[in-house]
């Protein structure tokens, strides 16, 4: 039982990272119907920006919460800027073309970030400085949780609540929801659709950056291709929950994280990459629009 | 009669091409030519699913992997023995290997087609991006399964596959997939596929059995992906699960979209272009993949409909171009 609880704690932690990345996928999909393949690479950039910020601030020599927060903020700001540039220069020109053209552009951007990363940072893994020294805390019943896991849970929960607040209770959030319903109608109501799309990319990229930093804290080896698999699985998580649906992305991320950790714990680590997709196929066959997605009737 | 004439002509050209290329080209250049051919088969077969039928599959590498491993296992355990016996009778290896290779390729293709049938079935319920993501998941599941099956080498890979494939056999594969696609496009069945792509609801209303046509597209597309995988295995003599990640599927999609969805000649052109491009960029070493990805983005921004759109380059089209209309 205690082993199961331990796996559950690990699964929820890992799942909240997936959820953070999945939110970016789902928001962009909700607004543009675009699978932003480059999103996993923005997550990778988040980890690298944090590495540079930590070196620049000297956060490894003197670990304290203020510096760690500064590192996180800088990484999120950097990735927000990257998200803005990607949307403006790669996706905006193909917005009126077919969705497939946009998808291939996204794949091109993803390859560009990966190979640009190899060129700039080198292909060999870099060690991420321990800006939050690890410490284990016993929860009783043989279950332990590390302070980094707590940090992951607290930061991602905070960011998710923040996102929920923005989307539901602010003017820009209202505009985002309007644009995701209908671009033309939103534009007729005086909403600057371009600006809202940019804002969505910035927001999603910042969440991915936060996920990158949090993961780098726990697994301090970062390399330019580290975003491919988590990106893919976070996208699967978003589909699992019902793509375009924000609570769905969080739920999908958690389901995915828990399932993966359980498979590693009870079956075999080599099946880790397959469980995500088995789960996906099973759930989609039962609920074709994801767990929380609404099946829309086709209008003729 | 006309078809048999064509068949003999194509086979003769391929034999001449095979002999000539082996004389003239370096092993590296020969490999690039063969990879071009394999990528053409992959792109044209995916074009059947994505371009003709409008279904979005990103699991082509999975079908290719099934064909590759299936045919390789046949050749390693059965085909190689047959060839040894035939060679003992005095036949030279290329002739002795012809039948076993053909059987291996068909077997690999059929294995992939079976998987294509299974993947095509969910298209009953799933549409668009949801179907796409299921095909992606399927491809990844195949790869992880291969990684975990020890008999076929697992993560170490599968070495020692007889290297029977050459320019001739790849040419046969290319000719087969081209002939089939072209004839399909001009048949009732092809029109049904186009109708599904253009408007599924309207097609259904007009009496097209959309489900079975969608599954048919998956089965044919997967079959040729399996054949391409078999050729790949018998050319390189070594297989590794890492050759069949979703990156490979994405490469093939890039070819189809870049060529123009639904255009057969476009797929061929883009397959050649996207195979040669990374090779031509080899002199600039570390900038190679960065330039490749930049070119992909720029091409999609400047020609979002693909190089050829939905047009085809054909003999009739070339003749029309050559004789401009009188003003």
Keywords:
heterodimer, A: mainly alpha, two-stranded antiparallel ribbon, two-stranded antiparallel sheet, 11 helices, 72% helix, globular, B: 327 residues, mainly alpha, 74% helix
Counting H and I runs of at least 4 residues, what is the number of helices of chain B?
A: 14
- How would you describe the oligomerization state of the chains in this entry? heterodimer
Number of strands of chain B: 0
Mean pLDDT of chain A: 89
Biggest sheet overview of chain B: none
**How do the strands of the widest beta sheet of chain A line up side by side?**
1-4
Provide the β-strand percentage band of chain B: under 5%
What distance separates the N and C termini of chain B? Answer: 41 Å
Radius of gyration of chain B: 20 Å
The largest sheet of chain A, given as strand count, sense and whether it forms a barrel, is: 2 strands, antiparallel
The count of strands of chain A amounts to: 4
Percent helix of chain B, as a range, is over 70%
Rg measurement of chain A, Å: 19 Å
Shape descriptor of chain A: globular
Structural class of the secondary elements of chain B?
mainly alpha
Question: How would you characterize this protein structure?
Answer:
- The complex is a heterodimer of chains A (300) and B (327).
- Chain A is mostly helical and 300 residues long.
- Helices cover 72% and strands 4% of the residues of chain A.
- Chain A has a two-stranded antiparallel ribbon. A two-stranded antiparallel ribbon of chain A has the order 2-3.
- In chain A, a hairpin with a 2-residue loop joins strand 2 and strand 3 (143-146).
- The termini of chain A are far apart.
- The model of chain A has no long low-confidence stretch (mean pLDDT 89).
- Chain B has a domain at 33-245.
- Helix content of chain B is 74%, strand content 0%.
- Chain B is mainly α and 327 residues long.
- The longest helix of chain B has 29 residues, at 60-88.
- Chain B has 14 helices and no strands.
- Chain B has helices spanning 2-24, 27-52, 60-88, 93-96, 98-120, 128-148, 167-185, 188-198, 200-205, 210-236, 246-259, 264-280, 288-302, 315-322.
- In chain B, helix 2 runs parallel beside helix 7 and helix 3 (60-88) crosses helix 6 (128-148).
């Amino acid at each position: 039982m205690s082993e199961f609880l331990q796996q559950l704690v690990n699964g929820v932690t890992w799942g909240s990272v997936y959820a953070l990345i999945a939110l970016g996928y789902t928001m962009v999909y909700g607004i543009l119907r675009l699978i932003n393949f480059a999103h996993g690479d923005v997550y990778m950039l988040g980890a690298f920006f944090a590495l540079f910020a930590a070196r620049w601030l000297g956060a490894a020599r003197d670990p304290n919460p203020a510096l760690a927060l500064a590192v996180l903020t800088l990484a999120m700001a950097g990735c927000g800027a990257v998200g803005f540039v990607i949307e403006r220069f790669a996706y905006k020109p193909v917005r009126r073309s077919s969705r497939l053209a946009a998808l291939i552009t996204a794949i091109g951007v993803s390859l560009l970030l990966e190979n640009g990363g190899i060129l700039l940072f080198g292909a060999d893994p870099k060690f991420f400085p321990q800006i939050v020294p690890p410490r284990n805390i016993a929860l009783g019943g043989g279950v332990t949780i590390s302070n980094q896991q707590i940090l992951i849970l607290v930061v991602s929960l905070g960011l998710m609540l923040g996102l929920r607040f923005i989307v539901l209770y602010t003017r820009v959030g209202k505009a985002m929801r309007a644009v995701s319903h209908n671009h033309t109608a939103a534009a007729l109501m005086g909403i600057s659709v371009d600006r809202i799309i940019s804002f969505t990319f910035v927001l999603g990229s910042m969440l991915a950056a936060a996920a990158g930093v949090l993961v780098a804290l726990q697994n301090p080896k970062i390399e330019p291709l580290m975003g491919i698999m988590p990106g893919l699985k976070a996208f699967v998580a978003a589909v699992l929950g019902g793509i375009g649906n924000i609570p769905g992305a969080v739920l999908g991320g958690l389901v995915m994280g828990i399932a993966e950790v359980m498979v590693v714990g009870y079956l075999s680590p080599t099946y880790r990459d397959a469980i995500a997709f088995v789960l996906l196929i099973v759930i989609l066959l039962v609920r074709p629009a994801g767990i929380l997605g609404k099946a829309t009737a086709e209008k003729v | 009669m006309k078809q048999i004439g064509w068949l003999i002509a194509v086979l003769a050209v391929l034999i001449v091409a095979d002999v000539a290329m082996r004389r003239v080209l370096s092993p590296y250049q020969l490999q690039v030519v063969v990879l071009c051919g394999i990528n053409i088969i992959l792109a044209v077969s995916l074009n059947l699913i994505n371009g003709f039928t409008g279904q979005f599959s990103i699991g082509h590498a999975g079908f290719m992997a099934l064909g590759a491993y299936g045919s390789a296992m046949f050749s390693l355990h059965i085909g190689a023995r047959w060839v040894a016996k035939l060679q003992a009778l005095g036949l030279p290896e290329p002739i002795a290997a012809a039948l076993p290779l053909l059987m291996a390729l068909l077997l690999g293709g059929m294995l992939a087609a079976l998987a294509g049938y299974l993947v095509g079935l969910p298209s009953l319920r799933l549409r668009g991006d949801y179907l796409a993501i299921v095909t992606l998941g399927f491809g990844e599941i195949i790869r992880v399964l291969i990684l975990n099956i020890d008999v076929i080498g697992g993560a170490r890979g599968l070495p020692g596959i007889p290297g029977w494939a050459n320019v001739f056999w790849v040419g046969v594969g290319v000719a087969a997939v081209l002939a089939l696609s072209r004839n399909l496009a001009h048949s009732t069945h092809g029109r049904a596929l186009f109708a599904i792509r253009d408007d599924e609801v309207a097609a259904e209303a007009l009496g097209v059995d959309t489900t079975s046509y969608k599954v048919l597209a998956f089965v044919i597309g997967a079959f040729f992906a399996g054949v391409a995988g078999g050729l790949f295995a018998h050319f390189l003599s070594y297989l590794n699960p890492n050759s069949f990640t979703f990156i490979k599927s994405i490469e093939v999609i890039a070819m189809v979209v870049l060529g123009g969805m639904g255009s057969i000649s476009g797929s061929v052109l883009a397959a050649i272009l996207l195979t040669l491009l990374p090779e031509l960029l080899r002199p600039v070493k570390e900038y190679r993949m960065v330039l490749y990805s930049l070119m992909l983005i720029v091409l999609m921004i400047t020609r979002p409909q693909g190089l050829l759109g939905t047009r085809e380059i054909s003999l009739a089209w070339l003749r029309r171009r050559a004789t401009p209309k009188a003003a």
